[in-house]
Amino acid sequence: MEKRWIALYVENEVGVLAKIAGLFSGKSYNLESLTVGTTEDKTISRMTIGVKSDDITFEQIKKQLNRFVEVIKVIDLTDVPMHRKEILFVKVKNCTTHDKTELFQIANVFNVHVSDYGKDSVLLECMLPDRRNDELIQLLNLHFKTIEVVRGGSVAIESISTSCI
Amino acid sequence: MKGSGAKLFVKALMEEGVETVFGYPGGYAVDLFDELYRQDSIQIVLPRHEQGLIHAADGYARSTGKVGVCLVTSGPGATNLVTGIATANYDSVPLVCFTGQVPLGLIGNDAFQEVDIIGITRNICKYGITVRDRNDLGRIIKEAFYIAKSGKPGPVIIDLPKNIQTELGFLDYPDEVNIRGYKPNINVHIGQLKKAWKTLKNAKRPLILAGGGITRGKAYDSLQKLIDKSNIPVVTTIMGRGAIPTDHPLYIGNTGMHGTYASNKAVSECDVLFSIGTRFNDRITGDLNEFAPKAAIIHIDIDTASISRNVKVDIPIVADANIAIEKLLDWVEPFETQKWLEKIKAWDEENPLGMKKGKGMNPEIIINKINEIFEHYTVVSDVGQNQMWTSQFLKMNKERKFLMSGGLGTMGFGFPAALGVQIAHPEEYVISISGDGGIQMNIQELATAVVEELPVIICVFNNNYLGMVRQMQYYFYGKRYAATCLRRRSSCPSNCKGPNSACPPYTPDFIKLAESYEVLGIRVTSEEEIEPAFRRALMNRKKPTLIEFMIDNEELVLPMVKGGNPMSEMILPTGKR
C-alpha cells in the first residue's frame, strides 16, 4: 500500500464531484485526500486526489475514472516531479507567554506564518507539503494542550524544472 | 421555429429512429405523453409496472441492438426503474430512460414525487443528467443516445424537470456529437494483437473463452471463422452461450459455477486461454488463485477497466471483439489440436451433461422438446435454476437465440423482457422460461401481453421452491429450507425439511390466474403432455399462452461448484466430487 497522487480534469458540472467521490466509496478504494477547483477554463475543474493503494488497485482506479463521461483527463502523478502543497490552519489555545514565544520559533523553523494572535491564542497558517503538515501537527500535539486543526487537502501541479518535488 | 421541450423531445426520438417507447405516465411526464399522443410514428407500450417496463425495453434492445427507450414520471416512477437500470448496466444494454422531474424551482423542497434519481442511479448507469436549461435539451438527448449505444453500451438517464418540458425554445436537433471526455476506442492495437498471436500459435492446448462481448460486438461470424480456421475448442460464459452454435463440434460447453465437467477441466488444463468479451466474473473463475493455472491468458475487451481486474492477464487487448478477431484472421493457421480435443472428449464422456432420468418430466426433457418443435426462437429465461437448465440444454445458433440477465441476476426479468422481444419481432417464436418464484415478480405484465396481442409462450417451471437457493440449502445448509418453500404457510412446522403429503396447496393457481387475464393456461404434469401443450400454444398467435410444468421439487442444477471454490471441485450428477 502506497500513497499515490492523481490529477483529474473533469467537466465543471453538477454532480461530478459526487460521482467521483462515489466511485471511491462504492468500490472500497482508500481515498485520502480530494480537492477540487476550477481551472483557467471555467468549464473545467481540476481535482487533486490522494489515494492509498497497491499497484493493481491503483491501475483499476485510473481505468474506472477514465470510464466516466465527465472525466476529461486522468494524470498519474506518482512518478511525476510536482509541486504539492496543502493549506493548514492550526489554532493553539490556552498559551502561556512562554508558549507563545515558542510558537513563534516553531513558525520560523517550519517556515509558516502567524496570521492571528490573541491574549492566549495563536493562529498558524501553513502552506506545506502534507507530510510536513503532519509533522507540525504531531509536534504541536506533543507540546501544547489545546490545538484546533483545519486542513484543506493537497493541491498539486506538475513541475516546470523537472527536479523539484 | 420555436416549440415546447416536449415537442423537441418527440422530434429527437423521431430523428433517432425510435419506433417504440415503453412508457408509464404520471404528473410530471404528462406533457411528454401529450406530445406523443399527437403523432403516429412512435408507438407507446404501457406495461403495468415500471420495473416490467424497463425489462421490456431491455429485451427490446438486446434483441434488436437498438436503443431501448423508457419514459416514466418522477419519484416512484423513476425509482421503480432502478433494478432495471442496474440490470442493463451489468449486461451492457443500450437504454435511454427519460424520467419526469418536479420543476427546477421545486428541486430540493421535498416536493410531491420529487426524488434525486440522478443521485440514486449514479453508480449503476453509464451516464445520467438532469436538464437544467431548455437550450441544452437537444444536445443532451443526442449525446444520451450516442453514449448509450457506443463503446461498451449501457443505460443513460435523462431527468426532465416539468418546466423544461413546457418551456418554449428552439426545436433544432443536432447532427453531431462531440463530448471531450468520451471518445470510445474500438480499434485494436496491432502490436498487442501480434503479441497475442505469437503466444497463441505456440500453444499445445489452446482454448477460446467467449463471453457476452461476442453478442454485443456482433462478432458471431468472425468468431465462427476463427474457430473453423484454427480448430481451437471453445468454452463460453453463460452470457456468451450461443456465441457459436451449441452443436458445433469444437464447442465444449459453459464454464464456471454450473459449467460442464469437460469445460472446467479444459480451463484448468489449457496452456493458452484466449478470452474475448468476458469480465472474469467470480461465477466464471471460482477461486482466483486456481483459475486456469497452467495458461497464459490473452484478453480482448472493449472496456479497459475489465482487463486485469479480477484475473491477471498476460496479454491485454482493448478493442471491439469483432474488429480484433477480423484482424487476427489474417494470420491464423490451423492448429494441431487433435490430441487435445480427444482429451476433452474423454472428459465429456466421463461426466456428460444431463439430468437424472426416471423421475418423469424434467427440465431437460422440456427444453429438448423446445429444441425439437421449434426451428427458430428467442428464448428469454429468468434467473435461477430455470436459467441454468435453459443455458445447459437449449440448442442455440443464429436462429435460436437466448437472452437472460447474466451479471445482476435479476429475478423477474425474463417474462417482461420476452414481451420486449416479441414487440420488436412480431413473427418470432418468443418463449419465456421462468421459475414459479421469478414469474410472480412481474406477473402483472400478463395484462401487457394481452393488450399488446403478444403470442409469447410463457413456460413456468413450477417446483414449489426458490430452487437455486434451495439447492444451496440442500448441499451446504443441512437441508434447512429457510424461506425457500413457496407453499409454506404460517401454520407449517418451523423446522420443515422438505415436502410431504400434509403440505398446503400452492398459491396462486397459475392456470386460473392466466385465465383471469384471458391468457390461455395449460398445466403439464407428464412428459406426454409437453408436445401437445406447445402445439396448442403455436395455434394461439394472438394472445400469450402460459404453460405450467409441474416438475419435481428436488431437481438440481449440476455440475455445481460452491462459490469461492476452485473450478476443479465440482459436485457432479453422479454424486462424486
What does this structure look like?
Chain A: It comes from Anaerosacchariphilus polymeriproducens. Chain A: GO terms for molecular function: acetolactate synthase activity; acetolactate synthase regulator activity. Chain A: Pathway: Amino-acid biosynthesis; L-isoleucine biosynthesis; L-isoleucine from 2-oxobutanoate: step 1/4; Amino-acid biosynthesis; L-valine biosynthesis; L-valine from pyruvate: step 1/4. Chain A: Residues 5-82 form the ACT domain. Chain A has 165 residues and is of the alpha+beta class. Chain A has helices at 16-26, 55-67, 97-110, 130-143; strands at residues 2-11, 30-38, 44-53, 71-76, 82-93, 113-117, 122-128, 146-158. Chain A has two domains: 2-76, Alpha-Beta Plaits (2-Layer Sandwich), CATH 3.30.70.260; 82-158, ACT-like. Chain A, domain 2 (Alpha-Beta Plaits, 2-Layer Sandwich). Chain A contains four helices and eight strands. The longest helix of chain A is centred in the middle third of the chain and has 14 residues, at 97-110. Chain A is elongated, with a radius of gyration of 19 Å. Chain B is α/β, with parallel strands linked by helices. Chain B folds into three domains: 2-170, Thiamin diphosphate (ThDP)-binding fold, Pyr/PP domains (Rossmann fold), CATH 3.40.50; 190-350, TPP-binding domain (Rossmann fold, 3-Layer(aba) Sandwich), CATH 3.40.50; 363-550, Rossmann fold (3-Layer(aba) Sandwich). Chain B is built from 22 helices and 20 strands. In chain B, strands 3-2-4-5-7-6 form a six-stranded parallel beta sheet, with helices on both faces. Chain B has a six-stranded parallel beta sheet with strand order 11-10-9-12-13-14, with helices on both faces. In chain B, strands 16-15-17-18-20-19 form a six-stranded parallel beta sheet, with helices on both faces. Chain B is globular.
